[in-house]
């Protein structure tokens, strides 16, 4: 199925870049992710990859096209690829309801992931199950803001969770001493999964450091360190 056939089949879910010039509307049908990246300045993206249909429309959903002569007069060229590039760069990206819904679901998953990783139940200092967070989301009737990133919405969601479940963001400081026979092997993993606050390599080849991890990952991090060293590791929790 070529791009034109795909467009005809999915008109109701098309994403557009629209530009108004001299009281005339010009539209192109785009891949939303690529169009947005291109607008951010990534000009390595091929315009042909962005366009779902290699044509210019006056009303894409109705399949209406502008007069070819008028098009050339407005843009100073009859090259539709160059015209499409200008529309994408200068126009407004309009996203379909289908795309927006997918984006909302992606943001929801990301928000819940951030909260789960960084939060604990303050009563028993244990991680909060994802299922419980999802239930709180539904109970609070939370709606995604289309114009904010997932990260920008975390604090608002967390505040709405607090009346429903015991929850707080937490960072855990941990002092670790890894014997020499394991230190080099797991050092990269420690750096990857924590923030190293201070560290030292000892004369016997062992490694000692203080690391900071999200509270929700405490058990997973410690279990992983013990598994990697067959239990031959010293771990001390430095805060509540």
Would you write up a description of this structure?
There is one protein chain. With 240 residues, this protein is α+β, with helices and mostly antiparallel strands. It has three domains: 81 residues, Hypothetical 12.0 Kda Protein In Nam8-gar1 Intergenic Region, Chain: A, CATH 3.30.1250; 73 residues, SBDS protein C-terminal domain, subdomain 1 (Arc Repressor Mutant, subunit A), CATH 1.10.10.900; 67 residues, Alpha-Beta Plaits (2-Layer Sandwich). 45% of the residues lie in helices and 20% in strands. The strands form three sheets. A four-stranded antiparallel sheet has the order 8-9-7-10. A three-stranded antiparallel sheet has the order 2-1-3, covered by helices on one side. Strand 1 and strand 2 form a beta hairpin. It is elongated, with a radius of gyration of 26 Å. About 2% of the residues have low confidence.
């Amino acid at each position: 199925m070529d791009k034109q056939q795909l467009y005809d089949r999915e008109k109701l879910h098309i994403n557009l870049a629209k530009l108004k010039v001299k009281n005339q509307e010009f539209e192109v049908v785009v891949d939303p992710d690529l169009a947005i990246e291109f607008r951010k300045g990534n000009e390595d993206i091929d315009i042909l990859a962005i366009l779902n249909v290699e044509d210019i429309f006056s009303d894409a959903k109705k399949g209406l096209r502008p007069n070819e002569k008028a098009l050339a007069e407005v843009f100073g060229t009859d090259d539709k690829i160059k015209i499409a590039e200008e529309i994408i760069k200068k126009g407004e990206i309009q996203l379909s309801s289908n795309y927006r819904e997918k984006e909302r679901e992606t943001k929801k998953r990301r928000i819940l992931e951030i909260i789960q990783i960084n939060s604990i139940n303050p009563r028993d200092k244990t991680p909060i199950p994802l299922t419980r967070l999802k239930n709180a989301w539904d109970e609070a009737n939370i709606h995604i803001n289309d114009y904010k990133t997932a990260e920008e919405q975390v604090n608002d969601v967390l505040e709405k969770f607090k009346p429903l479940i015991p929850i707080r963001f937490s960072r855990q400081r941990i002092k670790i001493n890894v014997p020499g026979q394991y230190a080099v092997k797991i050092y990269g993993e420690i750096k990857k999964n924590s923030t190293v606050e201070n560290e030292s390599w000892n004369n016997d080849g062992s490694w000692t450091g203080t690391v900071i991890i999200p509270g929700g990952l405490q058990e997973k991090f410690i279990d992983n360190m013990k598994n990697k060293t067959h239990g031959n590791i010293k771990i001390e929790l430095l805060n509540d």
